[in-house]
């Protein structure tokens, strides 16, 4: 007798239902995987990922009593918990949701603080960290940090984005400064560097004035990083004189987009 699936007296085989259900389940999964996520969903996923990474880094630092804590592309629900990390002397906060120095106000033991691309706005509180030797503040600032730097004469290393005026006269108020990294706007005048007693490393990833002669009068200069176009346009020969004086000159390649 031939099998008639449409016979009212013969129920459909169970295996057929089972196969059909599993097939539909697989299809649903494939369709779901192909459905693009909304921007809000992707942002939430990124936020969750950063929080998980931050919690993991924090837990490991607590366990090992680390002195160097780096929260790079890693966020915390509450940054105030960092105040409990009295063993941390170097803190890095990069590309996360950190937005107020009040959240780390008790970390007076910090000797190094590096902040890049966060939501911080008020910069005056940097002066409260009286033990800081290294301060890197790059991008994301709405205020000019230079007046605050003058309240921190013990700084030995700084990295900042220069405001539009390109004024670096504040360097004269930092006698212990050994390394400086300047980015952003063109430096308006290099003469504030003349005779500086400690500067040995200068990194300028921005425009420079036509007159470079002040670089010859930085008595302890050992290493200089500048754009490679400077050497090509240096008709005064300052760069060649620096090299002849034993100073290491590194040229930053020009990126053409």
Features:
single chain; 257 residues; alpha/beta; nine-stranded parallel β-sheet; 9 strands; 25% helix; globular; disordered N terminus
Q: Considering DSSP H and I runs of 4 or more, what fraction of the residues is helical?
A: 10-25%
What is the 3D form? Answer: globular
Number of helices: 5
Distance between the termini: 76 Å
Mean pLDDT: 85
Write down the secondary-structure element order. HHEEEEHEEEEHHE
Largest sheet: 9 strands, parallel
| SSE class | alpha/beta
Name the strands of the widest sheet in spatial order: 1-2-3-4-5-6-7-8-9
Rg, nearest Å:
29 Å
Low-confidence stretches: 1-8, 14-19
Beta-strand portion reads 15-25%
Number of strands: 9
Structure description:
The protein is of the alpha/beta class and 257 residues long. It is 25% helix and 19% strand. The protein has 5 helices and 9 strands; from the N terminus they run ααββββαββββααβ. It has a 9-stranded parallel β-sheet. Helix 3 (146-149) links the parallel strand 4 (134-138) and strand 5. It is globular.
List the helices and strands and how they pair.
Layout: H1 14-34, H2 39-64, E1 68-72, E2 90-94, E3 112-116, E4 134-138, H3 146-149, E5 157-162, E6 179-184, E7 201-206, E8 223-227, H4 228-233, H5 238-244, E9 248-252
Parallel strand pairs: 1-2, 2-3, 3-4, 4-5, 5-6, 6-7, 7-8, 8-9
Short structural summary:
With 257 residues, this protein is an alpha/beta fold. The chain has helices at 14-34, 39-64, 146-149, 228-233, 238-244, and strands at 68-72, 90-94, 112-116, 134-138, 157-162, 179-184, 201-206, 223-227, 248-252. Helix 3 (146-149) links the parallel strand 4 (134-138) and strand 5 (157-162).
């Amino acid at each position: 007798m031939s099998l008639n699936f449409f016979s009212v007296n013969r129920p459909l085989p169970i295996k057929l239902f089972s196969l059909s259900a599993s097939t539909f389940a697989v299809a649903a999964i494939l369709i779901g995987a192909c459905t693009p996520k909304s921007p809000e969903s992707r942002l939430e996923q990124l936020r969750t990922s950063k929080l998980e990474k931050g919690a993991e880094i924090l837990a490991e630092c607590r366990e090992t009593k680390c002195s160097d804590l780096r929260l790079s592309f890693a966020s915390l629900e509450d940054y105030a918990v960092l105040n409990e990390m009295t063993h941390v002397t170097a803190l890095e906060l990069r590309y996360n949701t950190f937005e107020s120095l009040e959240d780390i106000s008790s970390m007076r033991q910090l000797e190094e603080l590096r902040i890049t691309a966060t939501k911080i706005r008020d910069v005056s509180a940097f002066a409260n960290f009286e033990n800081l030797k290294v301060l890197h503040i790059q991008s994301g600032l709405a205020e000019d940090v230079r007046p605050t730097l003058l309240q921190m004469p013990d700084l030995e290393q700084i990295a900042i984005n220069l405001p539009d005026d390109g004024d670096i006269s504040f360097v004269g108020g930092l006698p212990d400064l050994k390394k400086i990294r300047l980015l952003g706007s063109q430096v308006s005048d290099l003469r504030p560097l003349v005779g500086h007693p400690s500067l040995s490393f200068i990194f300028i990833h921005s425009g420079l004035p036509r007159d470079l002669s002040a670089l010859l009068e930085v008595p302890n200069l050992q290493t200089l990083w500048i754009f490679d176009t400077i050497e090509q346009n240096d008709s005064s020969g300052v760069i060649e004189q620096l090299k002849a004086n034993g100073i290491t000159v590194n040229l930053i390649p020009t990126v053409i987009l």
